[in-house]
Amino acid sequence: MATRALGLIVLPLAALAACSSPRSDLAAGPAGAQPNVVIVLVDDMGWGDLPAQGAHGIQTPHLDRLAREGVRFSDFYSAQPTCSAARAALLTGCYPNRLGIAGALGPSDEHGIADSEVTLGELARSRGYATAIHGKWHLGWQAPFRPQRHGFDEWFGLPYSNDMWPFHPENPQAWPDLPTFDGDSVLAWNADQAGLTEEITRRAVDFIDRNARRPFLLYVAHPMPHVPLSVSAPFRGGSQRGIYGDVLEELDASTGRILAALDRNGLAPNTLVIFTSDNGPWLSYGDHAGSAGPLREGKGTTFEGGVRVPFLARWPGRIPAGSVCSQPAMTIDLFPTIAGLIGAELPAQRLDGLDIWPLLAGEPGAASPHEALFFYYGENDLEALRSGRWKLHFPHSYRTMLGRQPGSGGQPGQYDYGARVSLELYDLESDPAESRDVAAENPDVVERLQRLADAMRSDLGDTLTGVAPTGVRARGRLRAP
């Protein structure tokens, strides 16, 4: 079809009980108003792409402002280093494999998020909130799986990744035409993506303006900077990092326009704003990819570069300005945290996330509520876990660009898929690059973490060790299995 331009983001039972009650002290903002929530999720932005974390060649004054006026988490994680799984975790508070969601769903997949799962949209609706997602959904594109069936009043954007179209650099014949949705209607096929960030931003700002007098949840899920990179004319050629930097600067400007809309409507003092990424950088794309900074590897791996992501949060008067939190937390924690803030009851089904408001609020002595965070990949492979300062990798293969030529100009380089890691322990406080295995020096730590892993395997299973899951719920299907 012709291109059409657009004119124009192992919960213990005791912990479950503790976090199921609304936080009555925080469920209301000024004059008794319920707090608004804005989540900006970008796609494939690396931990090292944030200037507040050492990035160079990119000007992001609005993200700098978020960091200056709120909190930056240095050790925040995506639940999995790939698209659909990461979004399932953020929207439900569960490890994505608990929901039967793995990898990146495509146009040929006939499954998605189940009707029985409660999303952030449905959670907010239960408290009378207006809800919207503008951007990439990626939890199933057919009608039963779309956002409007899962708690969102409105949706504009893409059903899956922006490279799943007939202009894919490696496999163009593998993909059908890419739809851009406006609600349940297809607005365009194979749209010119240069206007995508602008149109998502315009609709996000319009949503804020229209709902300024009622509480709202706004989820801005930008398809960028996932390849293929595309940027509108005002930002083209403006950065020192080529088109990748241009795209990030447009995303920064988009965030600035959202903050300005909150200011213009007098909503900033009563709005929690969160900015994060779904996973680390897609390193094979070279100059069209981001940076993990000092962290090892990138997207598609459970090393720090794949799962540790930028995270900023602001709520004036509630979150201390200019604060930094180094306690580990994860996207699964946003659901129960937001539930507490808006006064919503948690769903009956089991969650994996925990309330991290004490970390966001900078409460004295606040620590991660998790004994461990678990990193699954593939269909159901438990590859690693983090507990406090320690990260334990279990034997598995992974992809790497080490020793390989990265891609350029939108063409990817070729990964080495033969790399392997054994049972390896890393001290992330002294070695965030995961460069020195200290398992031999800390057998007691390895033994303790293996026990935690075994407990998780008994719940969610592990294909690497042949353990079948007991706590996984059925994913949504178009047809009965």
Walkthrough of the structure:
With 481 residues, the chain is an alpha/beta fold. Helix content is 22%, strand content 19%. The chain has helices at residues 13-18, 61-69, 83-92, 120-125, 196-210, 242-264, 304-307, 334-342, 357-360, 443-460, and strands spanning 36-42, 71-73, 76-77, 111-112, 130-135, 154-157, 179-182, 185-189, 216-221, 271-277, 308-309, 311-314, 323-325, 329-330, 373-377, 381-387, 390-393, 396-400, 416-421, 424-427, 476-477. α5 packs parallel to α6 (242-264). It is globular, with a radius of gyration of 21 Å. The two termini are 34 Å apart.
List keywords for this structure.
481 residues; alpha/beta; 10 helices; 2 domains; Arylsulfatase, C-terminal domain; single chain; globular; 10-stranded mixed β-sheet; disordered N terminus; 4-stranded antiparallel β-sheet; Alkaline Phosphatase, subunit A; 21 strands
